[in-house]
Write a structure and sequence with these properties.
single chain; 196 residues; alpha+beta; 2 domains; four-stranded mixed beta sheet; 7 helices; 4 strands; 42% helix; 10% strand; disordered C terminus
């Protein structure tokens, strides 16, 4: 938006031009995808911090900001933060908090052991990302030779589950659960996302 107000030569000379260009380039994929998961905003935060610091120094000096567009970026980020922390569906139904509690428990129990994910109905639930795993959409049919912890979804009270989350509305009230599995055992075969 700010690019409309002054020519490219002046825009290039501005100290925030690289940061604003980077933010604009990061925003393009958001226009093309349907989901707006909160974890996908992480690459924006360092640049927004730079812009906010620049705006704070400018205000501290008592100077007027050059363009409203630059001043609006911190306001938009604050608005998005408030939305995702207090007003979004995940914030209201506690799906995000329940998932994070489950992730913390898994990190404590499964230290140093591989994690394998069965299919989870809602791809907007970023369990794999928070646990540092990317299966690229593939669902394994058996446990690797080293053994692993299997993470799946189910209705609750799974007999083999060591860890179980609170009901998560984003997956229709089902629960996430984690269970250790022996090397070579069959997994992710029965029902949607069940471990055996």
């Amino acid at each position: 938006m700010a690019a409309w107000f002054f020519p490219w030569r002046e825009w290039r000379k501005h100290p925030l031009a690289p940061a604003l260009l980077y933010i604009a380039l990061l925003a393009i994929p958001f226009l093309l995808v349907a989901s707006r998961r909160g974890d996908r905003f992480a690459p924006f935060f360092p640049l927004v911090a730079v812009i906010c610091a620049w705006a704070a120094v400018y205000c501290w000096r008592g100077q007027v900001l050059l363009r409203i567009g630059v001043a609006a970026i911190p306001a938009v980020i604050v608005g998005l933060t408030v939305y995702f922390h207090f007003l979004s569906d995940q914030a209201r139904d506690l799906s995000g908090q329940r998932m994070l509690d489950f992730v913390r428990e898994v990190k404590v129990k499964a230290v140093g052991q591989p994690l394998v994910f069965c299919k989870i109905e809602n791809r907007g639930l970023a369990v794999q990302a928070f646990l540092g795993v990317n299966q690229r959409g593939r669902t394994p049919r058996e446990v690797p030779a080293s053994g692993a912890w299997v993470i799946a979804q189910g209705p609750g009270d799974q007999p083999d589950a060591i860890l179980e989350s609170q009901p998560i509305p984003m997956i229709e009230g089902r629960r996430l659960y984690a269970a250790p599995a022996e090397a070579g055992s069959a997994i992710c075969q029965r029902g949607q996302g069940s471990a055996e």
